[in-house]
Amino acid sequence: MSNKKGIVHIYASRNNTILLLTDVTGSETIAKSSGGAVIKSQHKEGSPYAAMKAAQEIAQKAQEKEIRKVNIKVRGQGGIKPKNAGQGAEAAIIALTRNGMIIENIENVTPMPHDGCTRKKRHRSKKS
Questions:
Q1: Residue 40 and residue 49: Cα distance in Å, rounded?
Q2: Going by DSSP bridges, is the β-strand pair 4-12/17-22 parallel, antiparallel, or unpaired?
Q3: Complete edge-to-edge strand list for the sheet that includes strand 67-75
Q4: Per the domain annotation, does 58 fall within a domain?
Q5: What is the model's pTM?
Q6: 47 FRET partner, CA 20 to 30 A, in 11, 33, 85, 100?
């Protein structure tokens, strides 16, 4: 059994889930997949099923490169947009464990503003 490690970056928004497998330094991309690459209908790209299929592809490519242990970095949209990760993030993590990956730690790397840009103001509609 090999002791190769990797990092799985999971970007989960409402509309899509993108997975990226890199080496430990994070500079070399080994594999990438997204919800849009594995599912036909556009409105289901951010669904847990699409994230699960994308994670299965990543796990297969990792096993070909003999990577078993991974660190996971989960990222939501962040900034002035929603801070929590989309619904595909949890499904992707579960799919990775089911396909033989050993998860060492899970980290949230969503960018958080600290007195940066302000949110958009609410639209004022005509009242009848």
A1: 12
A2: antiparallel
A3: 29-34, 17-22, 4-12, 67-75, 102-108
A4: yes
A5: 0.88
A6: 100
* CATH number of the structural domain spanning residue 96: 3.30.420.80
Q: Which burial class, exposed, middle or buried, applies to 2 when counting CB atoms under 10 A from its CB (0-12, 13-18, 19+)? A: exposed
Per-residue pLDDT reduced to its tens digit, 15-54: 999 999 999 998 999 999 999 999 988 888 999 999 999 9
Question: Tokens standing for 11?
Answer: 């970007």
What is the distance between the alpha carbons of residues 32 and 58, in angstroms, rounded to a whole number? 7
Number of domains into which the chain is organized: 1
Could you tell me if residue 122 is inside a domain? no
pLDDT of residue 122: 84
User: Where do the DSSP E strands lie in the chain?
Assistant: 4-12, 17-22, 29-34, 67-75, 102-108
